[in-house]
Specification:
A five-stranded mixed sheet has the order 3-2-1-4-5, with helices on both faces. Helix 1 packs parallel to helix 2, helix 3 packs across helix 9 and helix 7 runs parallel beside helix 8. The longest helix has 32 residues. The protein has 337 residues and is of the alpha/beta class. Strand 2 and strand 3 form a beta hairpin. The protein starts with 9 loop residues before the first strand and ends in a 14-residue tail after the last helix.
Length: 337
C-alpha cells in the first residue's frame, strides 16, 4: 500500500490515446509543464493510421518526458507518481504510454495512476480557476464521443445523454472531407465558417428522444446536398465554401446545444461546462456563452490547450486520485473503449 506524503506532490502524466504524445508535470495541483508532440504524418492519409501513431509515440515519449522534467526543474527522483491514460483510445498508442509509465514507475519505486481519457476532459475544468461548483452539467464533444454528464463530485458523475451513432467531431471531419479540405478537417470548417452565413443552407435536425444525439442522418443529408449541387454546378463548393462551412457548423452546434438546454432545464442546473476537442471550436464557444447569458448560466470553457488531447488534464485527474490514495496495480492494461 502506497503512503501519500504531505508535500510536494509531483506527478508526471502521459497522454497517448490517439496521435498526439503529451506529457505534463504537476506540483501540488499546479501545472508546471504541458508539452505536446503532434504527428504530422497522418495528414497524407486523411486520418489517423493506428500503426503509424503507435510508432511515433515510441519515438516521441522519451525525449518529451526528458524535456518536461528539465522545463519543470524536477528530477525524476522527486516524482511522487506516474499517471497515464488507460483508455479509451487506440490500443497500440495506449500501450506505449501505459508500458512506459509502468516501467518508469517501477524503476523509481513509486505508484502509478490510471486515468480515463473522457473523465480527464471533464476534470480539465479544475486546472485553472474559476472551478465549476458541483453539481454541474458538462457537454463533452470530441472526434469519438459526444455526451452530457451530470457531475456531482470529482469522481461521481452520471451519463445522461450520448450519441447513438456518430460523434460530433467525426461529423465535422467528414463534412470537411466531403469538401476536400485537408485533415484535420474540423478546424478547417471552423476557420471558413467565420466568414460565412450560418443560415445560407438549411440541413435537417435529428429527432432523437431524451438527451441523446445522432449525427449519421445529418451527415447523409449533407453529403447528398453537396453532391447534388456539384452536379448542377461543378464550382459550387469553391463559390460557396464559407457559407457551406458556416451552415453545417451551425446545424451541428444547434443540435448539441438544444439537448444541453433541455437537460439544464430539466435538472434545474445553471452551472454549465463544455469539454473535449470540439470545445476548441470557436462557433461552439461563442454559442455556449450566448446561451449562458440568455439563460442566466455560469458557463465554463477550458483554455484551447486543455480542450484537445493533452497531459495536463491527465495530471489534474491523477492529482485528485493521488490525494485519496487511488493507485493502479502494475497488472493494469489499456482498454480501447
Amino acid at each position: 500500500m502506497w503512503a501519500v506524503e504531505s508535500t510536494p506532490v509531483n506527478i508526471l502524466a502521459i497522454e497517448s490515446s490517439c496521435d498526439d504524445t503529451a506529457v505534463a508535470i504537476l506540483q501540488n495541483g499546479n501545472i508546471l509543464c504541458n508539452l505536446v508532440a503532434s504527428q504530422k504524418i497522418h495528414a497524407a492519409w486523411g486520418g489517423v493510421v493506428p500503426e503509424l501513431a503507435s510508432r511515433a509515440h515510441q519515438q516521441n515519449i522519451v525525449p518529451l518526458v526528458d524535456a518536461a522534467l528539465k522545463q519543470s526543474n524536477i528530477k525524476k527522483e522527486q516524482l511522487s507518481a506516474i499517471a497515464f491514460t488507460s483508455g479509451p483510445g487506440l490500443i497500440g498508442s495506449l500501450l506505449v504510454g501505459v508500458s512506459f509509465a509502468k516501467s518508469f514507475a517501477m524503476g523509481l519505486n513509486i505508484p502509478i495512476i490510471e486515468v480515463n481519457h473522457m473523465q480527464a476532459h471533464i476534470m480539465a475544468h479544475f486546472i485553472d480557476k474559476p472551478f465549476p461548483p458541483f453539481p454541474f452539467l458538462c457537454l463533452t464533444v470530441s472526434g469519438g464521443h459526444t455526451m452530457i454528464t451530470k457531475v456531482n463530485d470529482y469522481f461521481d458523475s452520471e451519463l445522461i445523454g450520448k450519441t447513438t451513432d456518430d460523434a460530433a467531431g467525426e461529423a465535422f471531419d467528414k463534412a470537411a472531407k466531403i469538401l476536400n479540405l485537408p485533415y484535420p478537417g474540423g478546424p478547417m470548417i471552423d476557420q471558413f465558417a467565420k466568414d460565412g452565413n450560418p443560415k445560407a443552407f438549411v440541413f435537417p435536425q435529428p429527432n432523437i428522444p431524451n438527451y441523446d444525439y445522432s449525427f449519421s442522418g445529418l451527415k447523409t443529408a449533407y453529403l447528398y446536398f453537396v453532391q447534388n449541387h456539384v452536379k448542377a454546378n461543378p464550382h459550387f463548393i469553391e463559390e460557396n465554401l464559407s457559407d457551406i462551412c458556416a451552415s453545417i457548423q451551425y446545424s451541428i452546434i444547434h443540435h448539441l446545444l438544444k439537448k444541453l438546454l433541455r437537460a439544464a432545464d430539466d435538472f434545474e442546473i445553471k452551472e454549465i461546462a463544455i469539454a473535449g476537442g470540439v470545445s476548441a471550436n470557436t462557433g461552439l464557444r461563442n454559442a455556449i456563452e450566448e446561451l449562458g447569458i440568455k439563460n442566466d448560466w455560469n458557463t465554463y470553457i477550458p483554455k484551447f490547450e486543455y480542450c484537445t488531447d493533452n497531459a495536463a488534464m491527465i495530471a489534474i485527474t491523477a492529482y485528485h486520485k493521488y490525494m485519496i490514495g487511488d493507485f493502479a496495480h502494475q497488472s493494469v492494461s489499456p482498454h480501447a473503449r
